[in-house]
Design goal:
This protein is mostly helical. It is 65% helix and 0% strand. It has seven helices and no strands.
Length: 191
């Protein structure tokens, strides 16, 4: 059990808790009981340790989306199968995005100065931060298509092939992503 986890609410003494409360209790018990074990599971299997909390969170997210998590008969087995699936999905996303070839953007990175005015640089940084936030609002597939097509410059057929979807589907995801980004930046420009 996690030492830092919050206590689980106790069941009311005058009968079984309602279904929604049972669901919350089961999810809380799973999170409290297996949180550290899931952390260790992922820490042994990933190279970027900073990804571990996100991977654990993905496991809990999948559990929370289940219709009835109270029906899990073997919670430990179920959690670690889910964790293995989260790890596989993460590896697939990393392969599609070629993350092993990307370098982390360091906060302390100092680049030589240029003739570009400081306010313009600041505005560009704000735009980049805004774009990142807007892209995170998109569904994974639409974001992947946008990044591969618009930012990486791949042809639409190559994007579709890389993601294992039809060209038409990739075009729809790109259109959705472009509309979302354009709307977000329209609001941002008029702030």
């Amino acid at each position: 059990m996690d030492r830092d986890a919050e206590p689980i609410p106790q069941q009311a003494e005058d009968g079984p808790p309602p279904a929604q409360n049972r669901r919350g209790l089961v999810l809380a018990r799973l999170a409290q009981g297996y949180g550290q074990a899931l952390h260790r599971f992922f820490e042994r299997r990933v190279t970027v340790k900073a990804d571990v909390p996100d991977l654990v969170q993905d496991v809990y997210l999948r559990l929370s989306r289940m219709d009835d998590p109270t029906a899990i008969e073997k919670p430990e087995h179920f959690l670690f199968v889910t964790a293995a699936n989260v790890l596989k999905d993460s590896a697939r996303r990393a392969t599609v995005r070629d993350t092993k070839f990307h370098d982390e953007l360091r906060d302390d990175l100092v680049l030589p100065s240029s003739d570009i005015p400081a306010d313009r640089v600041l505005e560009s940084k704000e735009a980049a931060i805004r774009l990142q936030a807007v892209l995170l609002e998109l569904p994974d597939r639409s974001r992947d298509v946008f990044v591969l097509r618009v930012m990486e410059g791949l042809k639409m057929a190559d994007v579709a092939r890389a993601l294992g979807i039809s060209t038409r589907a990739a075009e729809k995801h790109q259109a959705r992503a472009l509309a979302h980004v354009a709307a977000a930046f329209e609001d941002w420009r008029h702030r």
